[in-house]
Write the structure tokens for this entry.
Amino acid sequence: MVRRKFTAAIRAFALSLAGVALTACASNDIRWTEEVKLSDGRVIELQRRVELTASGFPAQERGFVKYVEICYAPLKLRWRSLGAYVPDVLDIVDGKAYMHVPIGNCGECRALGYPDPNALHFVWENGAWKRIRHDEFPAASEWNLLRSFANRRPQEDPRGLITLQEKERREYSVRDEQRRFGWRRMHERYLWRDACKQCGAPKTNESFSTAREIFDPGGDSCTP
């Protein structure tokens, strides 16, 4: 009888650990649909996904962002960047999609050719992202992508449809800062502004020939 109770207790403990592990694993894959307002006033819906690195055991703290994925089926658009490169702007102008990624530290500035300003700019052409210069990026494009997604508590993760109003609630303090100081994109924030210039940067490398690859080589989960 004692052995039976002991065995049952061990089995229950093992199942509880498995449940915790599965929960932690599931919480590391965050998927949602997001409303995005474009510079011309249109509102579109993007499919978004973020995967976090696995948490350690027995600690159940969340890991780092492994990659960021964005999909837009009408243009067959796919974006999958490494976790250090989180876009803040996606815009569609004259039928072309553009992506903007802020850069905020000297290591990335050096690896990416000291871009001026401290951001990366891309256009979606022929089924691939092509890096372009700052002056080729639509001037009216502003921050419109959710960036607060990997919360400490998985129950606060974005899930389902995230509306424009929900985005405002989730990032209210930064949105309020934007309204007060008038910046348009993340690299213009006070803590990020002119980051690459402040690194004692040499001349900007506009050929992009030696810039680090920012895209994750793995497959994506975009649907046609």
Remarks:
- Confidence is low (pLDDT under 50) at residues 1-26.
- The longest strand covers residues 43-52.
- The longest helix spans residues 2-27.
- DSSP finds five helices and nine strands in the chain.
